[in-house]
């Protein structure tokens, strides 16, 4: 049920060396790591063998050459992988990173020794060298990621998993440092819970572009059912989901709004949106915006309702970690008397990946106050069993920080007789989690993703972004 991204990523590679260890170890590791990275859809950027001794980094002059290479590829490099086939030169590694000044995640790998090859001609001492490299990076103030095993051969399955996780960390950090979020309309008056600080977000590289909802609705009202752009969006909507009993004129309304929202995203180079929904769109335009939000989220442009900017930021971060769409949900109901299960719910804006039985419908709860005929566009569908990563990013304005909680569980196939977008979640110590959410002032919205990526998010948020993180 997930939609994976497959775009290659570029990593800078530093191969550490120390002159009194066997040079052939550097030559062997270079060939090995290039093959492994390419097999994982990674483009390696590293020194050629004629630029330094075997393409390794040892002296300060080597470090300068390596840094110059990385700076030339600054826009491509999402992270740096440090390889230690032997003890390595800790200064060479640290100085390369300091001179390059890329501010990207760094992972340190060190080769294991063979018990039968501990003579002078064949020993590595990488176990010790890794500690020295990390000590120097710590002194230089450079953040870094460790492999699960202190020393590990690149062909070891645990390294493959570490590498995939590191690539996820790189995607999250790179994406969050330049993300642009569109805030469409004012926060609904009844939703103090989604208040946030633009200034704190901006200090962390997260930009918010605002637009008044009247401008969006005004532009939508200027369109007609005969406009080519409206016809094209109407075709896209019908291809995306069954329309159920939705009247034709409501589908046209939804399509017109979709045209304007997509234009706003394109004109402002946005990565995500948060849209005022409850209840202005229904009262002043006559439909729900859920279908458009679902289509954007499915197309990796996450969209959250109720102008929940940090909610859509959470969606974007999880999408970057997993390569699959995210959904904004309410922590909504207990599930009978099971203390580790709850109901996740929203009117109907989840990405299609979560809704195999997707259909355009109405929002009955909202309809009680604005008229159900004004809520067409909400989606109906039940999410089946799948892996679950959940979490939430929030600005804590009184402390001047960004904080987050993350965790993992399962979505289940337990019976659930209700409407809207809905799922049943099973989470270990759910009661303890709810205690944490309530005591620390988090929002009633949480984000779900069909993956197991909490570790990636924690490493990215806490180690590289410097945020306060609770991992449940």
TrEMBL record:
The keyword Heme does not apply. One of its GO terms (cellular component) is cytoplasm. One of its GO terms (molecular function) is L-fucose isomerase activity. Residues 344-470 form the L-fucose isomerase C-terminal domain. Keywords: Carbohydrate metabolism, Isomerase. GO terms for biological process: fucose metabolic process. This is Fucose isomerase. It comes from Larkinella punicea.
